[in-house]
Amino acid sequence: MIHEISVFLVVELVGTVAFACSGAMVAIEKRLDLLGVIVLGVITAVGGGMIRDILIGTRPPSLFLNPVYVATALIAVLILFFIMKFSRRCQDLLYSETYEGMMNFMDAIGLGVFTVVGMDTAINAGYGEYRFLMVFLGVITGVGGGILRDIMAVQTPYVLKKHIYACASLAGALCYMILLPRMERDGAVVISACLVVTIRVLARKYRWNLPRIEIRDRE
């Protein structure tokens, strides 16, 4: 049991750091001050879990009962902020392909990890027999923080516009649901999270997008 908890805790902390850095970079790109960077970084890291807990009636949400995730996100954001503040070289990355790739990879890691975490939370809450709810909670945990981040940054949520985002989370959730009864939990966690990351990375590289209607601008 101790081994299971420690492995899952490490996975959650990795996802927390990845999402916190993703949110902080959006805030830095928007030229927000330190408080703005902290708020966007932390809300990206824990926002999806907060939405999930509200939906299943966990009160107060777990982030208020176990502050380790907020503290981890805060530390990650502060380190990133001061690195960007005092390193001209890092600031120059904001306008490079390297920055876009790093952002996508961090976001993909967070998405994969929290998709699995959301489903596992549903199982632990006694909803393991409700497959649709499990998958929904997995996806909302994965994408919820990014949606809140983008709303607060006054931009169209990334999940709604390009590069197979929610669909990657859905694929990981379905994968976890299929694998969990057939193998050990740790293996199912790693495979499902890696599937999400792989889909996200490939979607950006090969510009996979869902179809949309192209409307000409009014003259």
Automatic annotation (TrEMBL):
It is found in: Cell membrane. Keywords: Cell membrane, Membrane, Transmembrane, Transmembrane helix. It is a multi-pass membrane protein. GO terms for cellular component: plasma membrane. The chain crosses the membrane at residues 6-27, 34-51, 63-84, 105-127, 133-152, 164-181. It comes from the Bacteria. Residues 10-84, 105-179 form the Glycine transporter domain. Coiled coil: none annotated. It holds the Pfam family Gly_transporter. Belongs to the UPF0126 family. This is Trimeric intracellular cation channel family protein.
